[in-house]
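INFO  loader      accepted 1 record
INFO  loader      residues=62
INFO  predictor   begin
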Amino acid sequence: MDAVTLARRNPEVFVLECGPDAADLAERAAVSDIALRLKRSEEDVQAELAVVRTAMRQLPTL
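INFO  predictor   done
INFO  writer      dumping tokens
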């Protein structure tokens, strides 16, 4: 989660063009990198990211 948060906050580190979609593109780049490092699909990483976001939103003290 930290890598994705960092990518969204600092998209210029992950993508060349910092337009209105830069944060989304940076997140996709971070997810792609994580998937490659873990030898898993990007869809698996996105699914786990969705679970983490839901847990953080619904269980903030977790």
